[in-house]
TrEMBL record:
The keyword Isomerase applies. Gene3D superfamilies: Divalent-metal-dependent TIM barrel enzymes (3.20.20.150). It comes from Herbaspirillum hiltneri N3. SUPFAM superfamilies: Xylose isomerase-like. InterPro entries: HPT_OtnI_isomerases, HyI-like, Sugar_Epim/Isomerase, Xyl_isomerase-like_sf, Xyl_isomerase-like_TIM-brl. PANTHER family: HYDROXYPYRUVATE ISOMERASE, ISOMERASE. Residues 21-256 form the Xylose isomerase-like TIM barrel domain. Belongs to the hyi family. It holds the Pfam family AP_endonuc_2. It comes from the Bacteria. One of its GO terms (molecular function) is isomerase activity. This is Hydroxypyruvate isomerase.
Length: 268
């Protein structure tokens, strides 16, 4: 049975952030994810999870200076010490919040920069992150992201991400398969899910091209979600989309899946 996590960075923006946990639980979600918890104490977030019987599926390690446009530091030469500190911070949060999956963003690269050097730094940093996350019982995931949404992002393709994980060889390093990004960059989403499922640690969904609900756009999510279920995927599926209107009003797609027995909703 599929398990869906509401992405509280994109969904339920009708509410203040800490109130989004209750809103997601009221609609029947049993899990949540979001980009970053670092504006809050981890105990505060954990209390919201516990009060609403929610599981934290995932959040991201510190990404550098997000407000200034940085989108991760894992592949950035000269930032290795900062990266190590960011992993230390992230794992302190996972210890309290309880999620077992941590997304590490690669960062940006300019056309004039040395890609081979960035890749070498990326692999070294990911090896460090995977080792220390393993000691904490946490899986690290890396995500290929399209360059329309994030121009210059270092990691874009599923095969490249899988190759990086294979080269490092850590059992707790996997790929975050975002169907939205994959469709924009490569297409052929179903074939890649079949090919790569053994190396997938987290899945995210959104409609293409507007990034609204998964029943809006060019991707056939009823087919893809049944495929994901048939492939035996046991992890969370993050709903990382921007609702077209009020969040709760756009959950017809999720209720339809529940009616088919593909997921379970427990409104509270």
């Amino acid at each position: 049975m599929l398990r869906f996590a509401a992405n509280l960075s994109m969904m339920y923006n009708e509410h203040a952030f800490l109130d989004r946990f209750a809103a997601a639980a009221k609609d029947g979600f049993s899990g949540v994810e979001f980009l970053f918890p670092y504006d809050f104490q981890p105990e505060e977030i954990r209390s919201r999870l516990d009060a609403n019987s929610l599981t934290q599926a995932l959040f991201n390690a510190p990404p550098g200076d997000w407000a200034a446009g940085e989108r991760g530091i894992a592949s950035l030469p000269g930032r290795e010490d900062e990266f190590k500190r960011s992993i230390e911070t992230a794992l302190k949060y996972t210890e309290v919040i309880g999620n077992k999956t941590l997304h590490v963003m690669a960062g940006l690269i300019r056309p004039d920069q040395d890609r081979a050097r960035h890749r070498a730094v990326y692999l070294d940093n990911l090896s460090y992150a995977a080792h220390h996350a393993d000691l904490a019982g946490v899986t690290v995931v890396i995500e290929p992201i399209n360059t329309r949404n994030i121009p210059g992002f270092f990691l874009n393709r599923q095969d490249d991400a899988q190759a990086i994980c294979a080269e490092i060889g850590a059992e707790n390093l996997k790929v975050q398969f975002d169907c939205y990004h994959c469709q924009i960059v490569e297409g052929d989403v179903a074939v890649k899910l079949k090919r790569d499922m053994a190396g997938v640690g987290h899945i995210q969904i959104a409609g293409v091209p507007e990034r609204h609900e998964p029943d809006i756009g060019e991707l056939n999510y009823p087919y893809l979600l049944k495929l994901i279920d048939s492939l035996g995927y046991q992890g969370w599926i993050g709903c990382e989309y921007v609702p077209a209107a009020a969040t709760s009003d756009g959950l017809g797609w999720l209720k339809a899946l529940a009616a088919q027995g593909l997921t379970e909703l427990k409104p509270r």
